[in-house]
Amino acid sequence: KNIVILISGGGSNMRAIVEYVAQFGWQEAGLARIAAVVSNEPNAAGLAFAAEKNIPTRILNHREFTSRESFDAALQNVVDEFSPDLVVLAGFMRILTSKFVVHYEGRMLNIHPSILPNFKGLHTHQAALESGVKVHGATVHFVTSELDNGAYVMQSCVPVLADDTVETLAARVLRTEHLIYPKVIDWWVNGQLMWQNGQAVVKNGEQ
Ligand code: GRF
């Protein structure tokens, strides 16, 4: 299976996934490989890490496109060059057109830093602090045209502490993202996670 990861920044989730794939020897076993890492930000720190690991990288700067549609069309070409079975959005900070999303329907995952359906969109940690929730976390979900609303697959939760700042809370959530995102991809690679009629179906354990 070919997995293409899209990033915009630090790429710590991408790193966690790359390290997980290496740890379990998926490439050597012919199970799955990270076929490419694609960034819309030329300076994304994650690109250097991917290159170091000999993963092909591509940069597609959205500022060089006149519309969201033309950027997404070019992005689709770049991603499809690697024949992806799964597209993984890992801190990819662009809203995608529905044409793009439909093209990868059922084979594109995202991680969002909140316990959805709470706190969609940006600034989720700030929103969590302001709302006074005592538990916060992250969600891995399939991507559909509705922002942050595709079928949820796995969620993590962490406590919100009295003296938390956006930074301390974000760091606590991020550590859990690095656990749940590789795990979801593991399920998918091993045929335990499927997309059926707009729903995420997980088959493991005793079922
Ligand atoms: C993560 O919190 C992710 O959920 C959010 O942006 C952050 C990206 O972090 N969408 P990284 O680039 O994976 O380090």
UniProtKB/TrEMBL annotation:
Q: Binding residues for (6R)-10-formyltetrahydrofolate, per the UniProt record? A: R68, M93, R94, I95, L96, N110
Look up keyword Transferase and say if it applies. yes
Protein's UniProt keywords contain Methyltransferase: no
Its domain of life reads Bacteria
One GO BP: 'de novo' IMP biosynthetic process
Q: Provide the alphabetized UniProt keywords.
A: Purine biosynthesis, Transferase
Name the residues that bind N(1)-(5-phospho-beta-D-ribosyl)glycinamide.
Answer: G11, S12, N13
Query: Family per UniProt?
Result: Belongs to the GART family.
Could you identify this protein by its name? Phosphoribosylglycinamide formyltransferase
Q: Which organism is it from?
A: Formosimonas limnophila
